[in-house]
Structures are given as structure tokens and as C-alpha cells.
Amino acid sequence: MKLNFEKLNGLVPAITQDYKTGKVLMLGFMNKEAWEKTLETGKVWYYSRTRNKLWMKGESSGNVQKVKEIFVDCDDDTVLIKIEQAGNAACHEGYESCFFRDVKGKIKDKKVFDPKKVYGGKNE
């Protein structure tokens, strides 16, 4: 499948979802290289817009995302990746999902790990 990387200056949004529960875990971005490495390795790779670099989810935390299925939207510019999440946490703040608070800021989930212990003050 050929993705359209032109609309967002070389990036496509990548929605990550737990393949068993259907829970949305995170939204990241992929450039062409991250997309190809994901297909090649079976592990999810992203492009960090803030660090301007390619990274594999879990490379510092151990919370690797193993690809189970990939879906491409009708415009070929967004992917939905159903994954098996190692460590039960996708969020660098220690939660299962990056979507752990509501619109009022109320936390709706429990932390799975202490990010200071895992990252030593750095975000993944």
C-alpha cells in the first residue's frame, strides 16, 4: 500500500489501538522511513516532530508495540495500527493510553508505571 505523505509535509497520522480491547492508546506521526521500518520489523516506529528523529516505541521504556494489523484510511493519509502493547503502557506519562484525562483535565485512568524511574526525566 502506498501512503500519501504529501498532505502533512511528509508525515501521516498513526492511530495506535490495542488489538484485544479496541482501546485507543496513542496518536503519533510517521514519515516514510518510519512506515517502512514498521512494515519491515513488525514493531511500530514513529517520527518525532519535536526531536526531529525516527524512534521505535519502547526503545527506552521497553513498552514495545508489536503490530497485529494495519488499516489505511480512504484517503491513504492516515493509518490505524492494531498492536499488542508490551508493558501495558503506551503513554510516556505512565498510563495505558495517552488519552487518560477528560476535557476538564480529570484523570480517568491509573498509572501503570512511574515515568521518572523508566525515563530518568526524559520523555520517550
Entry summary:
This protein has one domain: Ubiquitin-like (UB roll). The protein contains 2 helices and 6 strands; from the N terminus they run ββαββββα. It has helices spanning 32-41, 115-119; strands at 12-18, 24-30, 45-48, 53-56, 65-72, 79-85.
Quickly list its features.
124 residues; Ubiquitin-like (UB roll); two-stranded antiparallel sheet; 6 strands; 12% helix; globular
Describe the protein's topology.
Elements: E1 12-18, E2 24-30, H1 32-41, E3 45-48, E4 53-56, E5 65-72, E6 79-85, H2 115-119
Parallel strand pairs: 1-6
Antiparallel strand pairs: 1-2, 3-4, 5-6
From the spread of the alpha carbons, the general shape counts as globular
CATH topology: Ubiquitin-like (UB roll)
Q: What is the terminal separation in angstroms? A: 28 Å
Number of strands: 6
Radius of gyration: 14 Å
Reported CATH architecture: Roll
Beta content comes to 25-35%
What is the CATH class? Alpha Beta
Strand order of the largest sheet: 2-1-6-5
The major beta sheet can be summarized as: 4 strands, mixed
Low-pLDDT segments, ≥5 res: none
Counting structural domains, the number is: 1
Fourth CATH level, the homologous superfamily:
Phosphoribosyl-AMP cyclohydrolase
Kindly describe this structure:
With 124 residues, the protein is of the alpha+beta class. The protein has a single domain, classed as Ubiquitin-like (UB roll), CATH 3.10.20.810. The chain has helices spanning 32-41, 115-119, and strands at residues 12-18, 24-30, 45-48, 53-56, 65-72, 79-85. The strands form two sheets. The chain has a four-stranded mixed β-sheet with strand order 2-1-6-5. It has a two-stranded antiparallel sheet with strand order 3-4. β3 (45-48) and β4 form a beta hairpin. It is globular, with a radius of gyration of 14 Å. It starts with 11 loop residues before the first strand and ends in a 5-residue tail after the last helix.
